[in-house]
Specification:
binds glyceraldehyde-3-phosphate, TIM Barrel, 8-stranded parallel β-sheet, DeoC, Aldolase_TIM, about 325 residues
Length: about 325
């Protein structure tokens, strides 16, 4: 049965600032890691019901979409990125929706959660975001494959932090998961976290390359034990990126880690999320599985390059009653 989801306050600017303590990590506990399981058919059944189970309409929908915007890591990760493109993206990050729409919705001051770029684009992004409070996130450690020499991957993190990145999205070595070498994954993640210093670290699992949902559950737990502030599904470059089943597994691992340690770890689905209606499903999933606390940008992000355009289009429809062409909502 369809259920109408309750109201959500609009806009990040209206949320009280909450600062969770960082995840310091815990010693690797192989018993806990190996006990992680995933019942694929039950997970798929649960996910199949999600898109139809909850609907948000009218003002509630606009509020949920505004919240989704505040949780976007607005991303450009292309070989042909230029400083000009990054500057345009940052302008969009500062004002994600047309001024007249923001005013009509009472959402002045709304921004995205962060701007996510490759290392070389950090200085341009930092300059373009100055004074906005929007952090720059950098992908790192030989993104996307993570197969460069280990010492270079660690050094890359340090360089990106020095250049001004306040968030670092690292990629794990998928082979450690595929070979069941949980100690190696833990040690790698700990070294990456240490190199981040004060910068928050998101661990990209590249779930589309991990083979099984059980591996996803175990890798999530190991990365959290090693101190990941966020766990993130994908680089956006795998053939399969964020999916609902993978999300359910990772979110439940976050819940288990919190039950075990009291620490809240963030979640970032990334890759292939480009429609406003999909964003609403992810928000509903977070709300149902982890609760409202995970609907804020310090614990939830979408890694997305084009989602914002579709959300802006839906908000324009909400205000004016008409849909505009998608090309009118270019990102950069
Ligand atoms: O982390 C973010 C992803 O690379 C973005 O992927 P996307 O271009 O499919 O939205």
């Amino acid at each position: 049965m369809t259920q109408t989801t309750s109201a959500m306050t609009t806009g990040a600017e209206q949320l009280p600032q909450v600062h969770e303590p960082r995840n310091e990590g815990v010693p690797l506990d192989l018993d806990v890691v190996l006990s992680a399981r995933a019942n694929t058919s039950a997970i798929e059944r649960r996910c199949a019901t999600l898109p139809g189970r909850r609907t948000v309409k009218k003002d509630y929908q606009a509020a949920w979409l505004a919240r989704a915007i505040s949780c976007i890591d607005l991303t450009t990760l292309a070989g042909d990125d230029t400083e000009a493109r990054v500057r345009r993206l940052c302008a969009k990050a500062r004002q994600p929706v047309r001024a007249d729409l923001l005013e009509a919705l009472g959402l002045e001051g709304l921004t995205v959660g962060a701007v996510c770029v490759y290392h070389d684009m950090i200085p341009a992004a930092v300059r373009a975001l100055e004074g906005s409070g929007i952090p720059v996130a950098a992908v790192s450690t030989g993104f996307p494959a993570g197969l460069s020499p280990f010492h270079l991957r660690v050094a890359e993190i340090g360089e990106s932090v020095k250049a001004g990145a306040r968030e670092i999205d690292i990629v794990i070595s998928r082979r450690h998961v595929l070979e069941g070498n949980w100690r190696a994954l833990y040690d790698e993640m700990r070294a990456f976290r240490e190199a981040c210093g004060e910068a928050h670290v998101k661990a990209i699992l590249a779930t589309g390359e991990l083979g099984t949902l059980r591996n996803v559950a175990r890798a999530s737990m190991v990365c959290m034990m090693a101190g990941a502030d966020f766990i993130k599904t994908s680089t956006g470059k795998e053939s399969v990126n964020a999916t609902l089943p993978v999300s359910l597994v990772m979110i439940r691992a976050i819940r288990e880690y919190q039950a075990m340690t009291g620490v809240k770890v963030g979640y970032k689905p990334a890759g292939g999320i480009s429609k406003a209606k999909d964003a609403l499903v992810y928000l509903a999933l977070m709300k149902e599985e982890l609760g409202d606390r995970w609907l804020r940008p310090d614990l939830f992000r979408f890694g997305a390059s084009s989602l914002l355009g579709d959300i802006e289009r839906q908000l324009e429809h909400h205000v004016s009653g008409a849909y505009s062409a998608s090309w009118r909502h270019a990102m950069a």
